[in-house]
Design brief:
By secondary structure, the chain is of the alpha/beta class. The chain has helices at 2-23, 56-68, 82-92, 104-110, 133-136, 139-144, 167-173, 181-193, 210-230, 244-258, 271-279, 292-295, 341-351, 354-364, 381-392, 413-418, 424-448; strands at residues 42-49, 72-79, 99-102, 146-147, 150-151, 154-166, 197-200, 283-289, 306-309, 323-333, 394-396. α2 (56-68) links the parallel β1 and β2 (72-79).
């Protein structure tokens, strides 16, 4: 009888132990502390675009996350062509990673079609530092991450893009960075007289001209014009695309090429090639972003210094202030085909902590799209100038509403003007002509979702 009672007691204890163990488990990501090494083992595959930010931050995330979660192994897969490589894999659900850090245009493509996990609730979940994504994300980025009222990812970086100038060259020649566009025009002539090109940019990629254009939209059209571009109504189409702000922006761009501000051969150069020409002193300034220093760290000559600055306004500007573009770059999301969704959510929360954000800035020289302190970080003067530019000057970030049809519906206006294949008037006519049909197609696509 005693033996039987003991067996029953032991059995009851085992049941209670199992129940207690079950009660201790949670389906939501744990926010704090290292996990028990006896827990189920996970391998979390993280694929990322390995561009200007390099891979050092992802390696740091792997090391630190594994320390705090000893039952998790992170497998990193970085590639400069990840934006192209990952698309057929995610869309066919073949060899799908658990987390992707890629271009945010893919978030808007994959989210509504069910290929990404809805992370709207994750924005209110507590991060390991006790804060939430919702309480620390910047306002403009929070808006940019919205896709039909849902969130399908967390932002990777916030980029400042403007004009970067050769500080030593300017100092040696007694040049001052212009406060107005008229001063810029005079400076360009002085620079050319020295046998130096005023400007270059990665000419193979016309989108490097976008920051100039977007800043000009604000300067010559004002906030009402920006609202019409990004959140138009049917009544705005097609007249919006012959607005004087477009004409002024495209004319300024046209004059830059017509007046030989742009270094000869620029259109044939990719990003690293044009950046090398700038570092060699072939051009005094370059249209580029905060990632330049990190991307070219192995090629920067000793003693070379550079500084990020905004685009100065002309005297006829509606918004008579220097403007710099500051926009969201990339996102971290979870493909719906992931087999480790809860662990992946935990990783995204960890990657969004203040500590992770500070490490990102120190390791890449760029800013994450969160509010956090950079005090005490070992960052270069160039990085400081990029961060200062976004804090000191007026910023622009075009965040298009779902029904918007972009700022150039007929053709790539910037590429057409840069290549001299179209005049300003031809570009505007092409966009006005294409706008009604583009509007109908966009509305049809929205209504089909």
């Amino acid at each position: 009888m005693v033996k039987r009672f003991m067996k029953l007691s032991l059995g009851l204890l085992m049941v209670l132990s199992v129940l207690a163990g079950c009660a201790g488990k949670s389906e939501t990501p744990e926010a704090n502390g290292a996990t028990n090494s006896k827990e189920e083992k996970f391998t979390l595959k993280v694929a990322f675009f390995q561009g200007g930010y390099g891979d050092s931050w992802f390696k740091w995330l792997k090391e630190e996350f594994e320390k705090q979660n000893q039952n998790v192994t992170i497998e990193l897969e970085g590639n400069p062509k990840m934006n192209e490589i990952i698309q057929p894999r995610v869309e066919s659900k073949t060899n799908v990673p658990d987390i992707v850090f890629v271009d945010d245009s893919l978030m808007r493509k994959w989210g509504p079609s069910g290929k990404l996990v809805d992370l709207t609730d994750l924005y209110e979940a507590q991060k390991p530092d006790g804060k939430t994504i919702a309480s620390t994300i910047t306002d403009s980025t929070n808006k940019a991450m919205d896709v039909f009222g849902k969130k399908y990812g967390v932002p990777l970086a916030q980029l400042s893009q403007g004009i970067i100038y050769n500080v030593k060259m300017f100092e040696e020649n007694g040049w001052q960075y212009p406060n107005t566009w008229e001063e810029m025009e005079k400076l360009a002539e002085v620079i050319k007289a020295k046998g130096i090109a005023p400007l270059t940019y990665p000419g193979k990629y016309p989108y490097y001209l976008f920051p100039f254009g977007h800043a000009a939209y604000l300067q010559y059209g004002g906030t009402e014009f920006i609202e019409k571009i990004t959140n138009p109504t049917e009544a705005d189409i097609p007249g919006l695309f012959e607005d004087p702000a477009f004409h002024r922006t495209f004319t300024l761009l046209d004059e830059m090429f017509k007046d030989d501000w742009i270094m000869k051969g620029t259109l044939a150069l990719n990003h690293t090639e044009s950046q090398m020409e700038f570092l060699r002193g072939k051009a005094a300034m370059i249209l580029n972003g905060a990632w330049l220093e990190n991307e070219m760290k192995d090629s920067i000559p000793e003693g070379f210094t550079m500084k990020m600055m905004p685009f100065p306004p002309a005297k006829d500007a509606v918004v008579n202030e220097p403007v710099i573009e500051s926009l969201t770059s990339g996102f971290g999301g979870i493909p719906s085909a992931s087999k480790n969704i809860e662990v992946a959510k935990k990783f995204l929360l960890f990657s969004s902590t203040d500590e992770a954000n500070r490490q990102f800035t120190e390791l890449t020289g760029s800013s994450r799209a969160f509010i956090y302190s950079v005090d005490g970080l070992k960052i270069s003067d160039f990085t400081k100038s990029a961060l200062e530019a976004t804090n000191k000057y007026k910023t622009i970030a075009l965040v298009f509403a779902p029904q918007a049809i972009s700022d150039s519906p007929g053709l790539d206006a910037f590429g057409a003007i840069a290549s001299r294949s179209k005049s300003v008037e031809e570009v505007i006519k092409a966009n006005v002509k294409a706008a009604p049909d583009k509007w109908k197609k966009t509305q049809k696509l929205i209504n089909s979702k």
